[in-house]
Amino acid sequence: SMRSHAYAALAALCRRVPKLLAADSALATELDIARKNQLLLKMKVQVWRGKVWRSHGGGDLAPVLKGGAVALVDARWIVEHAEAGGIVTHRQALPKEAFLSLSSLVEATDNYGLPIAALSYPWLTPSHPDPLGANLSRVAKALKALLSDPSVPRLGVFWDFLSLHQHPNPANGIMRTEEENALFKQGLACLGTLYSHQH
Q1: Which of 76, 78, 115, 124 has its CA 20 to 30 A from that of 147?
Q2: Cα(87)–Cα(80) distance, rounded to whole angstroms?
Q3: Other Cβ atoms within 10 Å of 199 Cβ, number
């Protein structure tokens, strides 16, 4: 009868449930082990990158980067900003995504050196280094070429106007705060390290 066939099918399904649960449990255990191994590998890579960062002298820059005296600008952001027709502005007016964190820099470190470039150029006016974006365009082209190399996943750029606290609008009396002034002086004190670093 139809009812007996339904009971038989239900009984067969009930006999299979423990096997299905066991298989599901074994799969869940394998996935859990794989996730743990992936996390462990990621932690080992982070430790290795931290060691490489320190061996290349990254520790020399860590205090000013952690403390906020110097902010390194993401090379990708510079390229995107230039391609969008932007003009550089002082550090305090830049969006948060313009900067690379210390952890991002450590993560991008490899055996070839620190992922940092220090820009040196003449300011075009006393109050703004690049009012028309000419230098931004040139720098962005060079950075785009660098970033096209797979061995350069990220690059932090030291660009004084963007990396150090500036007087936001001195013509209208808007100057750095006392805290920003102290950070600015700390940043100036590490310029020798940034520009002459061997890595």
Answers
A1: 124
A2: 11
A3: 15
DSSP string of 83-116, one letter each residue: HTT-----GGGS-GGGB--HHHHHHH-BTTB-SE
* CA-based nearest residue to 154, from 195, 89, 107: 107
- β-partners of residue 99 are 73
- Joined tokens for residue 120: 């040196």
Q: Compute the average pLDDT of residues 41-51.
A: 64
Q: Do the Cβ atoms of 92 and 168 come closer than 8 Å?
A: yes
Q: Encode pLDDT of 135-189 as tens digits.
A: 999 999 999 999 999 888 899 999 999 999 999 998 899 999 999 999 999 999 9
**Among candidates 62, 46, 50, 137, which has minimal Cα distance to 101?**
62
In sequence order, the β-bridge partners of residue 52 are none
Say how far apart CA 30 and CA 22 lie, in whole Å.
12
Model pLDDT, residue 152 = 86
- The set of residues, in sequence order, having a beta carbon less than 8 Å from that of 105 and lying 6+ positions away, is 53, 58, 65, 72, 114, 115, 116, 154, 156
Is the Cβ–Cβ distance between 156 and 74 less than 8 Å?
Answer: yes
Query: Strand 156-158 and strand 116-118: pairing?
Result: parallel
pTM: 0.76
- Six-digit token string for 159: 């660009």
Which residue is it, tokens 């061997």? 198
* Residue matched to tokens 């950070």: 183
